[in-house]
Here is the input.
Amino acid sequence: MDARLNLMANPIVLKAMKHIIAAGRAVEDSTVPHATLELVKIRASQINGCAGCIDMHTKDAAHAGETAVRLNLVATWREATVYTEAERAALELAEEGTRIADAAGGVSDEVWANAAKHFDDEQLASIVLTIALINAFNRVNVMTRQPAGDYQPGQYDHLK
Here is the structure.
């Protein structure tokens, strides 16, 4: 597949992406486990069909020590026994937060309450922002048909 735009050579895209990446840095200081945030990014990217983000975040998670079993089961987290209750709550929030248009009320009160049992307000804010930011990246990549498979962990560190 050929990309519709070369995102890394487009000055307006690079300028905008630096701002989105900067917003994501606030989340990096969160007390939410890094693994949980990566799982959230992977699940939202699966829902949105963003091969580039799935490639990046599965490789980043593996590089950080995540197991292949947990990475391979993200799409079927409800049936998998390898996730904590907190991770399951974050994955459920990621699904409803990504599929806002599928439900008239957006994220249900039940899903929010379940997440709030496991995360404090600061952590919830970090998860919500992670979901919003990965959805932004997903949309850019999907619309411009960015190919996947060649990502190397740390490849885009120069944009931070």
